[in-house]
Structure formats: C-alpha cells, structure tokens
Amino acid sequence: MLVWIRRGDPFFNYTVLTSGFILTLLDFLFLLLTSARDPGIIPRNKTSMNLEDGSESSLTQSMEWVNNKTPHLKVPKTKDVFVNGYTIKVKFCDTCLLYRPPRASHCSICNNCVQRFDHHCPWVGQCIARRNYPFFICFISTSTLLCLYVFVFSWINLIRQPGKLWRTMSHDIVSVILIVYTFVAVWFVGGLTIFHFYLMSTNQTTYENFRYRYDKKENPYKRGLLKNVKEVFFAKIPPSQLDLRAMVPEEDDLTIASEYQSEYSSSVRYDSEMGGKLTNRDSPKKLPMRARNLDNIDLSDDYDKSLATRDDVSLDLSSHLN
Fold it and tell me: Domain named Palmitoyltransferase DHHC: which ranges (predicted)?
C-alpha cells in the first residue's frame, strides 16, 4: 500500500495500510507476551525429603543428580487425587523431586515441570502452558488474520488497477509475492489456529490429545463450550511461582553434582578432579570388564600365590649358586 499510497483513493489506501499496521503490531505484541512470559514453571524441591515415613534416610536434589536415578526411593511413583469427582493419577518427578499437579508435565527441552503443559513450541522458543496459553492463542489467531488480510487486499490491489490481470501482475510484483507467501503461510498458522480452538472448546491440551488421554475415558475438565472458552480467555492468570529477582545462593555441591551427571547424559564430559570439561578425544575410555569388577574380585589368593612363586624362584636360584 505504500507503493500505491499516492494513486487512486487515498482514504482507501490509508485505511488498508493502517489496519495492516495495527494487525502487525498486535501479532508482535502477542508473540512477545508468549515467548517472554513464565509459562508456569514449578520450582524444584530443593529440600531433603524422607524416603519412607518414619525413616531417617532422606533424598536431596544433589543426590538425585549424581545418581541419575532413584533405585532406593521409597516414595510411590504415583498417587491418586480427586478432580471434579474423578480420580486422577499424578506422577512423581524424579528430576524435580515433587508430585506433579494434575495436567502438569516435565518438559524435556526446558528440563522443568510446567503447569497445564500444552507443548513446547520451537518457533516461539518457549513452553506453552497455563500462564501464556491465552497469549499463544491470540498470537496464532492474529497471524492467521494478518495472512488472510494481506492475501485479500493484495488481490484487491491487483483487480482495482486498469487493464488485463496478467499484465497487471507482471507490473505489480510485490502483490504477487505477497499473495503466494500468505497463501502458503495461512495453511500452517490457520490449521494450527483451528486445532487449538478445537482443543480449547473441549478443554484439552496438545499433550493430552496426542496421547489419547480421553479417547476411552471421560475428560474431567470438560465443562461445556462457553465455560471452556471462558476458562482460557477470562480466567485469572495465576502469579508466577518463580522469584526471578531473588538472590541465588552459592551451591557448589549442586553445581558439581549437576556437571557430574552431565557426563552420562550429554556428549560434553566433566573432569571432577581437574575441574574442567573434557573433549571427546580426552574422554575416559571404558575399562575392561575384569577391571570394572575389581570390587567383586578377591585378590588375596592370587597375591599369596604370587608371593609363594617368587619365594620358590629365589630358593632355586640360591641352590644353583651354591
């Protein structure tokens, strides 16, 4: 519209330009609110917890990071909670050391438990969950509207020009490029918008839908179309559980434990004795099977036999010399 702003009807051109500019600003605003907002991360349990009622043993987060698993953990992996009259099983998170609330899940990319986890969006670079899901819906909706808006008015811009259409298209390359681009893009953002409006109307998350959670059982969160939509757009967003401005205490043991655990979970290895990361060339080699089981090998007999053999050899040499 900037190209044709001085031609034709100025009122029409300025109106179309202003409306497109407003849609673009809204699109970027909702993108910012989606990507820069805490999605609902649940803080990890940093306090030690008893493994069993009445037991003096406990588990801390550093122990969990070092061991990578909890083979001696006595805490049940699941427990039952009641939601709207239905029994829901919630799982214990071995990484965060807490029972996840209903509909929460541990994001493997962010490595955090997130409330009402929907999915991790690689295009936004953020988890889509309880605290930013309304803004994500607005973001993909305005993206779809912007694509349709540019597509329609690019065609109108071509049709309003005098002459044959093909000749007009050869002279107005910008409109042709925008028509092709928005036609391709609208299938992605439009399909995503329709899918999420379906999830919103049935009160599901993408994570639940992809895992067929409610195909064979009733959805305990479904409350009707209007209430489901109201829950997404008009419900009060809970405050963040993270204090991002708090001072972080020095926790050297947790840092070392986390790096030690990364030796087994990533390609980057950490040398706990030298205090630095190892390259693949310097990575420790696997020990032979016999050397791995040194703790289980009784070396006393072999040691005694070697001593006896050495004494026999020394006696034979002394006899020959004499």
Answer: 90-211
SS3 268: coil
Strand 41-42: give its sheet, edge to edge: 41-42, 112-114, 105-107
Q: Which amino acid is at 25?
A: L
Our answer to whether residue 107 is catalytic in this structure is: no
User: Do the Cβ atoms of 74 and 51 come closer than 8 Å?
Assistant: yes
The pLDDT score that the predictor gives to residue 116 is 95
For residue 38 the two structure tokens come to 């805490």
The answer for residues whose C-beta is within 8 angstroms of residue 8's C-beta and 6 or more apart is 160
- DSSP letter at 295 equals G
Do 42 and 112 form a contact (C-beta atoms < 8 A)?
Answer: yes
Range list of β-strands (E), the chain:
41-42, 49-50, 58-59, 78-83, 86-93, 98-99, 105-107, 112-114, 119-121, 126-128, 269-271, 276-278
Q: Is 277 helix (H, G, I), strand (E, B) or coil?
A: strand
Alpha carbon 179 to its chain's center: 34
Q: Give pTM, 2 decimals.
A: 0.69
- Under a CB-based contact definition with an 8 Å cutoff, are residues 31 and 124 in contact? yes
* 51 touches 75 (CB < 8 A): yes
Q: From the candidates 113, 121, 138, 147, give the one annotated as an active-site residue.
A: 121
Per-residue model confidence as pLDDT tens digits over 111-156: 999 999 999 999 899 999 999 999 999 999 999 999 999 999 999 8
